[in-house]
Amino acid sequence: MAEDHGSSRHMSASQKELGDEDARVVRVADAARTNERLDLAGNAVRTAKYSPLTFLPRNLFEQFHRLAYVYFLVIAVLNQLPQLAVFGRGASVMPLAFVLLVTAVKDAYEDWRRHRSDRAENGRLAAVLSPGGGGAQFVPTEWKHVRVGDVVRVVSDESLPADMVLLATSEPTGVAYVQTLNLDGESNLKTRYAKQETLSTPPERLAGAVIRSERPNRNIYGFQANLELEGETRRIPLGPSNIVLRGCELKNTAWAVGVVVYAGRETKAMLNNAGAPKKRSRLETHMNRETLFLSAILVVLCSIVAALSGVWLHTHEEGLELAQFFHKKDYLRRDKDNDYRNYNYYGIAAQIVFIYLMAVIVFQIMIPISLYISMELVRLGQAYFMIRDTRLYDESSNSRFQCRALNINEDLGQIKCIFSDKTGTLTQNKMEFRCASVDGIDYSDIARQRPPEGDRIWEPKISVNTDPELVKLIRDGADTEQGTQTREFFVALATCNTIVPMIADGLDPKKKVIDYQGESPDEQALVSAAAAYGFVLVERTSGHIVIDVLGEKLRYDVLGLHEFDSDRKRMSVIIGCPDKSVKLFVKGADSSMFGVIDKTVNSDVVQSTEKHLHSYSSLGLRTLVIGMRELSQEEFQEWQMAYEKASTALLGRGNQLRNVAANIETNLRLLGATGIDDKLQDGVPEAIEKLREAGIKVWVLTGDKQETAISIGYSCKLLTRDMTQIVINSRSRDSCRKSLEDAIAMVNKYQSFSTDPQLRVPLALIIDGNSLVYIFDTDWEEKLFEIAIACDVVLCCRVAPLQKAGIVDLIKKRTSDMTLAIGDGANDVSMIQMADVGIGISGQEGRQAVMASDFAMGQFRFLVPLLLVHGHWNYQRMAYMILYNFYRNATFVFVLFWYVLYTGFTLTTAITEWSSVLYSVIYTAVPTIVVAILDKDLSRRTLLKYPQLYGPGQREENYNLRLFIFIMIDSVWQSLACFFIPYLAYRKSVIDGSSLGDLWTLSVVILVNIHLAMDVIRWNWITHVAIWGSIAATWICVMIIDSIPIMPGFWAIYKVMGTGLFWALLLAVTVVGMIPHFAAKAFSEYFIPSDIQIAREMKSQDFHDVTRPEVQMSTDNIKWTREFGKFLPLSLSQDAAGQHNIILHNINLGECCQCQPRWS
Amino acid sequence: MDSHAAGSSSGGSGDGAAQPRRNSRKPKYSKFTQQELPACKPILTPKWVISVFVLVGVIFVPIGIVSLRASQQVVEIVDRYDDACVPAGVTDKLAYIRNDSIPKACTRNLTITKDMKQPIFVYYQLDNFYQNHRRYVKSRNDGQLRDKSKASKTDNCDPEAKTVDGKPIVPCGLIAWSLFNDTYNLIRNNETLSVDKKGISWKSDRDHKFGSDVLPMNFQKGPLQGGKILDSKIPLSEQEDLIVWMRTAALPTFRKLYGRIYVDLKENDTITVQLENNYNTYSFSGKKKLVLSTATWIGGKNDFLGLAYLTVGGICFFLAFAFTLLYLIKPRKMGDNSYLSWNRATLGR
C-alpha cells in the first residue's frame, strides 16, 4: 500500500518548480488589486453546457458529429431540390428530426438539472472579510461573488467555497481538519496547517501580504507557493499541507480563515471534473465496417437503377414526347424559338444523375438511422438492469453497480484479458498487523491474544491482538539491550508516520477511543499495533507529538519529516526525544532500507531479519523495515540548516528535500521489520478461477514485491501448482535482454512440445518493474509481448502507475484482444483509462479510480456475474440487434428496389412515403429494442455454471461478416418473396398502386417481425406485446393513412382487405419468406449445435449436472508436466549467487507444500 | 458458483441484519429488475420442426387446390385490337391516330369459348403504359378534386396545371389529362348488350374523394389532347371513368373496369364489338386489349396463386420428410453435455 499510494502521489506531483515569471500573485485581503491586472476566474461555476440561447446551435453541432446524421441531413437537403423531391417536405425531414429531437430533449433535461445544481451551488453563502467601514468584519457573500484574494472564514462542517491558503484556525497550533469526501472520496480526515507566521495576526492586519502561487492545475496532491508578509523580505514556503480545496468540508475545527488563491473553474476540484475519456465499443467499430458494406450495396442499387433508367430513356426516346405518362414537352409554354419547352427533362445524362440522387433518397434507409438511437436506448435498458442487479450490490460499502459510460456495455461480453490491481482490488486494503521481527527475533507464529482489558485508558478503534511474550518484554525488559531495542522499535512505529489521532469518549467514561486518521492504511495498522503494545499516539500537532508510553505521557518534538516518495521508497522523521537526544527513525521497503542500513553493527540481526522478511512476504504479507540512528549535535545542526534551506527554496524544492533526506538516511541501525496482512476480498479465488475457465487471461499488476505478489497469486488461485513460472527480474539492461531471450526460447520449446491445446503446460510470467523499465526504454516490447501472450498468467510486481498503462497498451496495440482494467486507487487511473473497459472498485482508496472508470462496483468478485452474465447478455443482445436492424432495413429497401424495376426506373414507391418513413421508427423499432433489452439466450445459472459459455463473445461469434452475409442473403430472399408473390398474383389485374403498396407494407412488416419472433429465445409478456403490438400498430397506421381523403391511396386498405386474395397472399408471403430461415435454423441447431444451443437444451430438459469432472483433466496435465520436467534444461537449476535471470520453477505438488500459504 | 455466491452473500447479510442500515442502496428485488420474468422458451425439437412443416403442407395444399379451381372456373376472353384496328396500308400509325379527321371506328368479333355467368366484367387492358411512372403518378391534386373552393389549387399538376392564359384546369394533372377514351359497343345477335357503367368506381372515391359539386373546367384545352374530354356539366363524382382512371395502376400492364354486363353468355356466342379506337398507345408501342371476364373470390384468371400454394405445400412435405430422414440418420441427444465444445475436445483425445 505504501508503495502504491506513494508512487501515485509521485506521479501526480507537479514536476515543474515554481518560478517567479509564471506565478500567480495574490494580494491578501485585497481582491480588487489582485484581480485588476490578471485575468482570474471568478468563483461562479458553470457545469451546464448550454444556455437557452446557445442550446439549439450547440446541441445540433454536437449531434452532427455523428457522421450518419450528416448523411441523413444531406439527403434531406437533396430532397428539397425540386428536381429531386421524392418525398414531401414533412416526410423527408421527419426521421432525422425525430432522432435529433429525442436526443435534444434528453440533453436539455440533463442540462436543466445541471443548471439547477449550478444555481444552488453559486448561491451558497460564505463569510468574506469586508475591509469597509469601521473595522473589518466578515460579511455573508454568495459564492459566486467570492474573488481571488478575498479572506474567507469557514466554520466547522461548512464547505469550502474555493481553494484557499490557510491563514489561521481556531486551534492554537494552526491545525485544521478537512474531509475530502467530495474530492477523492476518502472519508478520513486530513490535516492542514496554517503557517506559524500568520497564525496570530488578525486577518485584517495581513493586508499587504502577497502570495505567489503556481498556476492552477488539476493535481490535488500538489501545491507550491510562498507567502511574503508586508515589510518582510523573507518568503515563507507554502505546500500542499497549507491549502484547503473547494468541495472539502471543515471538520473538528471551530473555524478557519484563509485567503482564496484559486476560484471557480480554476479550483482543483473543478479542474478534475473532466469526465472519463469517451470510449467506443468494439461492436460499434465493427458495425461501421458493415455500414460501409451497406453503403456499397446502396451505391450498387442506385447505379443499377440509374443505368437502367438511362437505357430505358434511350430506347423509348422517340415515344416520350407523346406518351401520355411521360409528357416530355410542356405544351402550354413556349421558349424564344416558339418551340415547346421540355418539361422537367434535361437530357438523358442529366436524367441519369437525377435518378441516381433520387435513388439515394428513396433507398436511404439502407443505412439504418434508427439504429443509433435504438442502441442508445438498449444500452440504457441494459444499464438499468445491471444497476438494479441485487447480485452486484455490495453490502459492506453499501454501493450499487454504477454505469458511468453508457456506450460500451457490450464490450463486457468480449473481454479476453483482465488487468487487475492487487491492493484494494483483490485484497481488502484493510491492513492487519500480523508479524514483527524485533532485534532479530520473530514474533509472528505465536498464539496471539486480545490485549488485556482493564487498566488501559486509551482504546484504539482498530484492536490488534498482541503477543504476550513481546508485551512482557516491553514491560519488564527496560534494562536489557533487547528491551531497549524493542522499545525503540515501537517508538519508531508510533512516531514515524503522518497519522492524526482523533479522540472521542468511549462507552466507559474512564476510557477514550482513539481513531487513527491517516492517508495510508499501513500506517494506521502500525500505529494501532504500537498502541496495542502500550505506545499510544495521543496527540499530534505540526510541532510535536504526544505518546502515552505504558501509561506515561511523553512529548516528542517533531523536528523534521521527510515524506514518503517512490524514489526513496521510505520515509523518515527526526524526533527530539524527552531525554533531549535527537533520533532519526526511518521506515521503508526492504529493498531500499537494506541499502542504507549499516550491516556491520549487528550483522546477525540483519541476517535473521532478512530471513524473517522473506518468510513474511512468502506468506503474502506486506513488509516494512524499521531503522534508526541517534544524531549527534553537529549532525543535527548541519541537517537542520540544509533542511531549512531546502524547504524554503523556490526552485527545485522537491529535489533538494529529497537530497537532504538521502544524506541523513544513512548508516542506520536495524530495529526490525513488520509484516502486515492485506486480506483477500471475498470470493476472489473463486472469481479468478471462473474467469480463467471462461478463457479470460488475468494479469495482476501490483506495486508489491515479487515474493508477496507470488504468494498472493497462489492464495487467489491465480497461480496454480501445475504452472511453470518464468521469472524476469533483472537489474541491468544486458541481463534483461538475456532473460527475455531465454524466456522466448523457453516459451517456444513449450509450444512446440504441445500442439494439442489440452496438453498445454500453463505458463506464468512474473516480471518486475525494473525489467519493465528496461523493456519499455528499448524496443524489446515485441519480445515481451511474445512471451506474455504465450503465458496464461502474468504477474507484474513493483510497477509504477504509468507502467501499468504501458502494459495494457502493450497488449492493446498488438492484438485485437479486448482488455479490461480493474483497480481502486489513484495509481490505477492511467491503466483504467487505457484499457478498453475500465472498472473502478468503490472501496477504500478514494474515488479517483471510480471517477476515471467506465463501470464501478464494490467487489472484485462481481466481475464474474458482470462479465459472464451481463456481459454475455449485453453482447449477444446488441450483436443480434445490430444485425437485425441491418437486415430489417435492407429487406424494406430491396422491396422498394424490385418495384422500381417495374416503374420505368423512376423511383415511384407503391408504399406511401409516410410508411417508408415510419417503417424504421414505429413499425419495427419497438420489438427490436425490447428484445435487445429483455431477451436472454441462457439463464444466469447456466452461464455461471459453464464459464466456457463466455467464449462466443470473445470469438465474436454473434456478430461477424459471415453472419452479416447470411442475414443479407435472407433479406434478399424475403424481399423477393414479399415483392414477387403479390406481383405475380396481381399481374394484369385492376390492382392499384396504393392497395398493392399497403399489401407490401404489411407483409414486409409481418415478415421482419416474424423473423425476430423466430429468433427470440425467451417469450415473456412484454415481448409478446411488443412484437404482436407492433404488427397491430402498423396495421392501424396504414388504416389511418388510408383514411385521409386527400391521400391518393384513400380507402385502399379497406378495399383490399375485403378480398380473399389479399389474405391468401399475406399468408403465402409470410410462409415462403420464412421457410429458409426456419429450415436453416432447425438444421444448424440440431446438426451443428453451438455450445449455447446445447446449454439451452440442457436447461430446458432440466438435465441435472453430469458434467465431466474437471479434475480428471488437470491431473492428466500434472502427470504430463512431471514427465516433461525431465526435459527442462533450466529446471530447478537455481543460481545460488542470487543474480539469476531466469528461474524455472517446475513446481510439482510435493514441492509446493513448503510454500503453501496459511490462508485458512 | 451459485452456491458460492449464495454463501457469501448470506454471510454478508448476516452482518447487515444485525445492524440494519438506515438507507441501504440495495436495489429492490423484483422479477423484472432481476430479469427473471416468467417466460416461455421454445426449442426447435425434431418433433416441432416436422410438425411445423407438415402443418404448413396440410394447410397449403388444400388452399392451393381451391384457388387453382377458382382460377380455372374463370372464363376470360382477351382481344388485342390496337394493331388490328389500324386500317391496312397505314404505315404511320402515329400520324393516323393523331389525325382527328379520320374516323376511328372499328369492329371486332369475339367468340365466347365457354359459358359465362353474369355479371361479366368488361375491362380494357393497357400494356406498357406506365401509370406508375413518377412524372405521371405525382401529377394530380387531390384537394382540387373534392373541393370546389380549391379549384385554383393546382400544385403538383404541372405540366397540365393551367391553360395557356393561366386559368386553372379542373381536374388538373397528367393523370386526368390522359383519360382513356376508347369506347366499346357490344352486340350479340344484332342486339346491343347493355354495359352498365354505374358503380364501376369505388364508392369511397365517389363519396369522399371526388366532389359532387366540382365541375370540369378548362379541361383538354391545350394544343395536345391527351385523352377523353369530360362533359363539363357532370360533376366529378359522377364521372366514373375518370375516377377509375385516377386510381393509378400499380404495374405497367394493367386492366381497368369499363363496365359490367348482366347477361349470361353462352359458349360459341359471337360478340361483335363496335369500338372507337381513339387512344394513342402507338407512340410507346403500348397494346390495347378488350377483356371480358367472370370473377371469383381470387379475382380474375390467375393460376399463379394456386400453383404457388401447391408448390409451397409440396416443398414443406418434402422438408418434413427430409428432416425426418436426417433426424433418423444422424440423431443427436438433445441437451447432452458431451457435445459441449470443451467436453468434446477432451473426449476426442
From TrEMBL, chain A:
It comes from Miscanthus lutarioriparius. Its cofactor is Mg(2+). ATP binds at residues 421-423, 523, 564, 587, 622, 702-704, 798, 804, 827-828. The chain crosses the membrane at residues 67-85, 91-109, 292-313, 348-373, 886-905, 917-934, 963-985, 997-1014, 1021-1041, 1061-1080. Its EC number is 7.6.2.1. Gene3D superfamilies: Calcium-transporting ATPase, cytoplasmic domain N, Calcium-transporting ATPase, cytoplasmic transduction domain A, Calcium-transporting ATPase, transmembrane domain, HAD superfamily/HAD-like. It catalyses: ATP + H2O + phospholipidSide 1 = ADP + phosphate + phospholipidSide 2. The keyword rRNA processing does not apply. PROSITE patterns: ATPASE_E1_E2. GO terms for molecular function: ATP binding; ATP hydrolysis activity; ATPase-coupled intramembrane lipid transporter activity; magnesium ion binding. It is an enzyme of class 7 (translocase). It comes from the Eukaryota. Mg(2+) binds at residues 421, 423, 824, 828. InterPro entries: ATPase_P-typ_cyto_dom_N, ATPase_P-typ_P_site, ATPase_P-typ_TM_dom_sf, ATPase_P-typ_transduc_dom_A_sf, HAD-like_sf, HAD_sf, P-type_ATPase_IV, P-type_ATPase_N. Residues 850-1090 form the P-type ATPase C-terminal domain. This is Phospholipid-transporting ATPase. Residues 1-22 are annotated as: Disordered. Signal peptide: none annotated. Residues 34-90 form the P-type ATPase N-terminal domain. The active site is at 421 (4-aspartylphosphate intermediate). PANTHER family: PHOSPHOLIPID-TRANSPORTING ATPASE, PROBABLE PHOSPHOLIPID-TRANSPORTING ATPASE. Its main location: membrane. Keywords: ATP-binding, Magnesium, Membrane, Metal-binding, Nucleotide-binding, Translocase, Transmembrane, Transmembrane helix. Belongs to the cation transport ATPase (P-type) (TC 3.A.3) family. Type IV subfamily. It is found in: Membrane.
UniProtKB/TrEMBL annotation, chain B:
Residues 1-31, 140-160 are annotated as: Disordered. Its main location: membrane. The chain crosses the membrane at residues 48-68, 307-329. Keywords: Membrane, Transmembrane, Transmembrane helix. One of its GO terms (cellular component) is Golgi apparatus. InterPro entries: CDC50/LEM3_fam. It comes from the Eukaryota. Belongs to the CDC50/LEM3 family. This is ALA-interacting subunit. It comes from Miscanthus lutarioriparius. The lineage of its organism: Eukaryota, Viridiplantae, Streptophyta, Embryophyta, Tracheophyta.
